[in-house]
From TrEMBL:
<dbReference type="InterPro" id="IPR036390">
    <property type="entry name" value="WH_DNA-bd_sf"/>
</dbReference>
<dbReference type="InterPro" id="IPR039422">
    <property type="entry name" value="MarR/SlyA-like"/>
</dbReference>
<dbReference type="InterPro" id="IPR036388">
    <property type="entry name" value="WH-like_DNA-bd_sf"/>
</dbReference>
<keyword id="KW-0238">DNA-binding</keyword>
<feature type="domain" description="HTH marR-type">
    <location>
        <begin position="9"/>
        <end position="139"/>
    </location>
</feature>
<keyword id="KW-0804">Transcription</keyword>
<dbReference type="Pfam" id="PF01047">
    <property type="entry name" value="MarR"/>
</dbReference>
<keyword id="KW-0805">Transcription regulation</keyword>
<protein>
    <submittedName>
        <fullName>MarR family transcriptional regulator</fullName>
    </submittedName>
</protein>
<dbReference type="InterPro" id="IPR023187">
    <property type="entry name" value="Tscrpt_reg_MarR-type_CS"/>
</dbReference>
<dbReference type="InterPro" id="IPR000835">
    <property type="entry name" value="HTH_MarR-typ"/>
</dbReference>
């Protein structure tokens, strides 16, 4: 497949990079407001969706399981995460948010205005088109 270096493609790539950079900057600021690192906030946010074993967290965040263990250890000390036996395999421990952790993850999500505010300025149809284009870029199935 030939790489596209036409001006439009280059501009789109630059805009995507700017969006990602702004998102990460705001995410780090939101995490710091809760005395968390960005990595801790990402793990907490992921766990707020569903409890999961360390290995799966590491796969989703594309990092080493030993790094995740350290992050979960620090979140556990803060009372944001707990380790529970996996009902499907009692040898496996799941990391799960505590009530305080769930509340903190929600506050983090609610404080992220960068993506939400500009998206609110788009019509439902425009947001659906953007979503579908992003899903297509990522090789995901179209939304139903």
């Amino acid at each position: 497949m030939a790489t596209r270096t036409d001006p439009l493609t280059l501009e789109v790539v630059e805009l995507i990079g700017t969006v990602v950079a702004r998102y990460y900057e705001e995410y780090e600021e939101a995490a710091a407001a809760h005395s968390l690192t960005g990595a801790q906030a990402r793990v907490l946010g992921l766990l707020s969706l569903e409890p999961m074993p360390m290995r799966r967290i590491a796969q989703k965040l594309k990092c080493e399981p030993s790094n995740v263990t350290g992050i979960v250890d620090r979140l556990e000390v803060r009372g944001l995460v707990e380790r529970l036996p996996d009902p499907a395999d009692r040898r496996v421990k799941l990391a799960a948010p505590t009530e305080k952790g769930t509340r903190t993850a929600r506050q983090l999500r609610e404080s992220l205005d960068f993506a939400r505010e500009p998206l609110a300025g788009l019509s439902d149809q425009d947001r659906a088109v953007l979503r579908d284009l992003l899903r297509r870029m990522l090789g995901m199935e179209p939304a139903v």
